[in-house]
Amino acid sequence: QAQAQAQAPPLPGFWFESKYFEYNGVRLPPFCRGKMEEIANFPVRDSDVWIVTYPKSGGTGLLQEVVYLVSQGADPDEIGLMNIDEQLPVLEYPQPGLDIIKELTSPRLIKSHLPYRFLPSDLHNGDSKVIYMARNPKDLVVSYYQFHRSLRTMSYRGTFQEFCRRFMNDKLGYGSWFDHVQEFWEHHMDSNVLFLKYEDMHKDLATMVEQLVRFLGVSYDKAQLESMVEHCHQLIDQCCNAEALPVGRGRVGLWKDIFTVSMNEKFDLVYKQKMGKCDLTFDFYL
């Protein structure tokens, strides 16, 4: 069956398109339909911690576990035994749903992939903490492509080149990556926003853990902080090097294995056009 699937011709574009709907000019997944107003009015608490990312930015995988560890002072061995997704629901997903998230006990840890402007309006001027993680878009598009191919509901059968073109033309779920990161970058100096880069988690984890500890207002002494950094290192190893996972899913520099020279040139051009006025930078050659 897998072989038959692999040989199946790419599905017509309209079938893939029909998975999305447009809301205020942004493509969103079908499960967001009919609830955007309720999301805008979602009651936010000052003690909330929100993790927001564009899909496949490493935030809802790796970062959520690090944040959970730091904020709860949790034992990493326990994290391995629990379903972390149940502890950190995604606001817009059908499960567990807005009603249940509203009732969770404080402090709530909540995730979302929605653009800044669609998040609950309380978040825009409140005290609850928002952690945003951005990932270099070349690695992200590879990871997003692999995800679309593995997801039964999407069954994306196009080529990577076609998928990359969609990404550059803002034709994927959750809209334009370029708008998503720039919108958040405009708020990176807000006192309740911490803007992180996925690559820094691999490059200098200790500094990122210290940033999180400060931002979340958790108190650790030096020994506890060192132990926490060590736990987080173990988590990253498990997430990025586990043999059961698709090869190098969380690796930095993933794009170099799949981008052709001409694709890379085209991508750089689009990147420059869309990010030209923004002082946010990514190191593509770590």
UniProtKB/TrEMBL annotation:
A biological process term (GO) from this entry: sulfur compound metabolic process
Cited function: Atypical sulfotransferase family member with very low affinity for 3'-phospho-5'-adenylyl sulfate (PAPS) and very low catalytic activity towards L-triiodothyronine, thyroxine, estrone, p-nitrophenol, 2-naphthylamine, and 2-beta-naphthol. May have a role in the metabolism of drugs and neurotransmitters in the CNS.
The entry's keywords: Cytoplasm, Lipid metabolism, Phosphoprotein, Steroid metabolism, Transferase
GO molecular function: identical protein binding; sulfotransferase activity
EC number: 2.8.2.-
Family of this protein: Belongs to the sulfotransferase 1 family.
Compartments reported by the entry: Cytoplasm
Species in which this protein is naturally found: Pelodiscus sinensis (Chinese softshell turtle)
Protein's name in the database: Sulfotransferase
Any one annotated GO CC term: cytosol
Family annotation (Pfam families): Sulfotransfer_1 (PF00685)
Gene3D superfamilies: P-loop containing nucleotide triphosphate hydrolases
Domain Sulfotransferase: from-to ranges: 46-278
